[in-house]
Known about the structure:
It contains 13 helices and 18 strands. It has helices spanning 12-20, 72-79, 83-92, 138-149, 202-207, 218-236, 275-287, 306-315, 322-334, 341-344, 354-384, 392-399, 410-420; strands at 2-11, 25-28, 37-43, 51-67, 95-113, 120-129, 133-134, 239-240, 253-257, 261-266, 270-271, 295-300, 303-304, 317-321, 351-352, 390-391, 428-433, 436-443. Helix 9 runs parallel beside helix 11 and helix 11 (354-384) packs across helix 12 (392-399). The radius of gyration is 26 Å and the shape is globular. The model is unreliable at 152-194 (pLDDT under 50).
Amino acid sequence: MISIANGLRISATNLDALRSGAIVGAFSKTFLAIDRSFALYPDLQVENSDLVTVELWAECKSCEGIDNTFDLLKLSQLTALPIEELESIFQQRASIFLLVLRVYKLPNPIQVQQKSIGNFVPLPETITIFEKISILDDEQFQQIQDQSKDLELLIIPNQSPDIVLDDDVFLEINPNIMTVEPQEVTDEETQPNNSLSWIKTISTLGDRSIETDTGKTNWKAGTDFENIVRKALEFLGFKADYTHKGGAGGLDLLCLEPYALFGECKAGKKIPNDTAVQLLNLGTLRRGDLFPKAVKLIIGAGKPTPQLEDAAKVHGMAIINAVTLQRLVELKSKYLGSIDLIELRKYFVGGQSNQEIDKYIEKVTNEMKLRSHIVNLVKRCLETFNSSNVDLNALSGAYHFSNPPQNLSKEELKEILIELSSPLVGYLGRVEEDGKKCDRFYYLRDLPI
Length: 449
């Protein structure tokens, strides 16, 4: 079941091509989250009527930032828009976002009030989708998407979504300020992000052994696991040192930033007794200057022996399961700024650390739920007060009646609002008056939980 509360404004020419199944490309003024669902609102003026008919909805399958260096002929082929119209768009905006959309028919067309501005247009009521009626079947969609990839050149790498979000992205959702409902949870198993699919292999590679991988040696299985763990730690924000990497007499893991971390990786069904001794000897030998105060980590899929647990406690070595590491990385992939490595360090305790790391994951998840609640509260207040922004006093009053995840004072709420409206986060915006930021906030984009 999918709920749709707003429509993305789409050029009528672009929309006709999407309806016919000839293309899967479109563009947006603002960044759209992958797998986000919305109606497709045709950008046209209907004579003698204040209503526009909306017949389609879509899922965003890709969102890439582009600027005027992108070949306009190729962009015209991707979106069916005339080059003249594209030139006009880039005269008004330095950059836009190129989308790949999976388009579906609404179960019943709806009438939406005409609106001349805004990247998104509110629907008169939320639409619930129980069955997907796709314009293209899976094979046709994949074929056209593959053909389009040949044209996608000069895409800006890793374009930040925060720098182009506009005030006109405000979504006017049906209000119920007394109850802030959580955002829809995406099923990561059924909605994979191919660029992050490696995350799912962390625990499975840890389980590998010569018994479970025909033709694969224990050494190869161990190397695979070591490589994926190193990749996971780098994804979390550690900087790996490859000078003392692996092999006979080498460290499995050595990270130097934001603090020193030494590690041993053990694939297979058990973690041997001598793992702590190996880590102690190799760490002291290779970087004895850093080892005493460094985080010492043993990562494996198997269960450590009692002797290893005792040795780890004595030497301050944290033992974590591959599944726990995978959960940390999954959390980071879902909320890119959520993992604070300096704070995480406190949860690497001597001996079994899985429960401690789980506490950290739960703590961060609760913090993200709180922030999602506040973002949604701001969005609903805008509709309730029929305003483009809302002040701190109103938000503080509304917060206490919104069934909040936890109690907050006005100052605590303000701190989180400022955090969410910073340019590096960009879920909310903060009004500026006379060159100074004031305590009035507006909505930019969802923070799904």
